[in-house]
Amino acid sequence: MLAAQLVGPEGSVVGVDRNAIAASRSQKYFSAMGIDNVEFRAADVQTLDGVEDGFDAVVGRLVYMYLEDPTEALRRAATRVRPGGLICLQEPDMSYWWSAPETPLWRQIYDWFQETMRRAKIEPRMGHALFSTFTGAGLPNPEMNLESRVWGGEQMPTYGWADVVIGALPLMEKLGVVTAAEVDPDTLGDRLHAELVEADGVMITGPLVGAWAERPTEMPPETAVRASNASTSVSPR
């Protein structure tokens, strides 16, 4: 929606999701909202096969943390952008402490989530790997920033972290990390809120790392990218 607002009615946006059902549902949702300059396609972000060249920008948020080879995926995305166009990404650091103090329930959901990412081979600190991902993909050193918010007291939106954990619950169960009965999703948000208020603590959101650069005229071939990416890795704390 933000991209659609930026390009205006004379511009167009293509959204990509490898799940055809998700792409179809998103298309219907946007149509119901009256947004007619966005097209959703079922395609793999890792390869972008079937997505043409010549875009003015490629943008992604919380995408590359799930990919097997983010550097090669970014190189492929950048080749779909015209020279001088923009590549803008935002990825998280999910390994930082979510609360202070780290009370028992907050620590428990944190541990469940970290173990789920480990078993699913999701990169929890992809935000910190964006610089090397950009340069490894043959792009210039990106401009970068870090965003986060801290909440305390009764107004803490602890449902946010509860929603993250509940959304990951099917994967947690599939990977044998925890059961729905142990999580008790119907009461999780209230319990998180009560525990942190009782401790006079704070909840920390993010951090989200943003990175952006312009596409150079020439992009390196795939073999050069794979060679430069061979020694790049990021591990959780």
Description:
The structure is a single chain. This protein is an alpha/beta fold. The protein has 9 helices and 7 strands, in the order H-E-H-E-E-H-E-E-H-H-E-H-H-H-E-H. It has helices at 2-7, 20-32, 70-79, 104-120, 130-136, 159-174, 180-183, 185-198, 222-229; strands at 13-17, 38-42, 55-61, 81-92, 99-100, 143-152, 202-214. The strands form 2 sheets. Strands 3, 4, 5, 6 and 7 form a 5-stranded mixed sheet that branches. Helix 3 links the parallel strand 3 and strand 4 (81-92). Helix 4 crosses helix 6. The protein is globular. The two termini are 34 Å apart. The model is unreliable at 225-237 (pLDDT under 50).
Task: Give a topology summary.
Blueprint: H1 2-7, E1 13-17, H2 20-32, E2 38-42, E3 55-61, H3 70-79, E4 81-92, E5 99-100, H4 104-120, H5 130-136, E6 143-152, H6 159-174, H7 180-183, H8 185-198, E7 202-214, H9 222-229
Parallel strand pairs: 1-2, 3-4
Antiparallel strand pairs: 4-7, 5-7, 6-7
Structural class: alpha/beta
From the N-terminal CA to the C-terminal CA, the straight-line distance is 34 Å
Specify Rg, calculated over alpha carbons.
20 Å
- Count the E strands: 7
Number of helices: 9
Task: Give the proportion of residues in helices.
Answer: 40-55%
Query: Overall pLDDT, averaged?
Result: 90
Q: Give, in order, the helices and strands.
A: HEHEEHEEHHEHHHEH
Binned strand content? 15-25%
Low-confidence stretches: 225-237
The backbone outline, from C-alpha atoms, is globular
The largest sheet is:
5 strands, mixed
